[in-house]
Write a structure and sequence with these properties.
Layout lengths: L2 E3 L5 H13 L2 H13 L6 E5 L4 H12 L3 E5 L8 H9 L3 E4 L5 H12 L5 E4 L3 H10 L5 H9 L14 E4 L2 H12 L7 E3 L4 H24 L7 E5 L3 H12 L4 E5 L3 H9 L3 E2 L2 H4 L5 E4 L9 H6 L4 E5 L9 H7 L2 E6 L2 E5 L5 E5 L5 H4 L6 H20 L6 E2 L3 H14 L9 H7 L7
Parallel strand pairs: 1-4, 2-3, 2-5, 3-4, 5-6, 6-7, 7-16, 8-9, 8-11, 9-10, 11-12, 12-15
Antiparallel strand pairs: 13-14, 14-15
Helix pairs in contact: 1-3, 1-4, 2-3, 2-16, 3-16, 5-7, 9-10, 9-16, 16-17
Length: 436
Amino acid sequence: MEYKVKDISLASRGRQLIYWAERNMPVLMRIRERFERERPLAGITIAASLHVTKETAVLVRTLARGGARVALVPSNPLSTQDEVAAALAEEGVAVYAWRGMNEREYYNAIGFALSFSPDITMDDGADLTASVHKLAYGASDDTVQHIRETAGSIDLAKLASRIRGGTEETTTGVIRLKALHREGKLLYPIIAVNESYTKYLFDNRYGTGQSTWDGILRATNMLVAGKVVVVAGYGWVGRGIATRARGLGARRVIVTEVNPVRALEAVFDGFEVMPISRAAEIGDVFITATGDVRVISLDHILRMKDGAILANAGHFNVEIDVEGLERVARSKRTIRPYLEEYELPNGKRVYLIGEGRLVNLVAAEGHPSEVMDMSFANQALAAEYLVKNKLGVGVYKLPDELDVEVAKLKLSSMGIEIDELTEEQRRYITSWELGT
């Protein structure tokens, strides 16, 4: 079986979506041109667990032009664009993805990707990489059984020993993989793509900032002006969301944090800062962006105004206590696509977007192509770097010179020129002798 998608007849529409993304991803297209000439990934098999979107398709095509065989599966059960999956399948990509997978189907997809015995894993959230490690260490939970159902005859226990390395796209995944390494259990090198400046400074801040609000507005068609918006977490994602809320006319933007430095940054950036327990009684719209569990608890939800809207911009659906909400709700009904109304025991109603999953990919299309251009340029260069360099086990940042290369390509594609240091200036900032 080379693919499993929702409807292969959607391929024509998918090709149009991919074409539009390619038009807006000039950096990755320039890397593709070089990859076609040099074929740096010839003979390499890549198992990729990424959001199956039009931008991901541009990355997959680029890797393929570089000589790689790619098996693509989702990194979230609700983020797949079925038209794009169909288009890739029709092109011959080994893709196993459709929107609305249940847990078994999701891990069946991971098993499908691993059945190709990859040389490189490419991840967004670390489910694929974590699965490889669980298999290597002999775990036997339900997810492992689901993986085995589609993995074929491959020896899953020995799979990690032949993998050259992996990449990780997002903050949540990097945290998981650093924890794995800290415990002495990481089995192969990982390049933390998320730690490249041309990824997190732009993707996390501008990409998530805009696409989160895109998802909220598509799901609700609400007016942001005049609302009180509460953003949980002030990392780069939270900063982007809070800044866009202010730009959309929110009456108040409140930030909740556990990190004193980030809380202070939020204050100096002009936002109110307070505990979530206080903010719960004030907010109209709540958006989580922390990567942690039950940041908005059931107790917080019960304190909220009638009509409060809940959305999550973190990778996993654990930041809002959806289980607790489901448990105590008197009733639940779908009001609009991806918008559920819950009646609470106190008679109030709250509205949850996208089951508490990634709002920008469930209710919208994810990040704009222009910002994913840099993120996926880093992914392509990371795959090439793993092939050309033998790394020891660890979690690495992509070398700064590749980060700079991506930035230069992006500026060039935008028609922007910058200054260069003179020889005198270069000597001055690299010397200890020169001073007053």
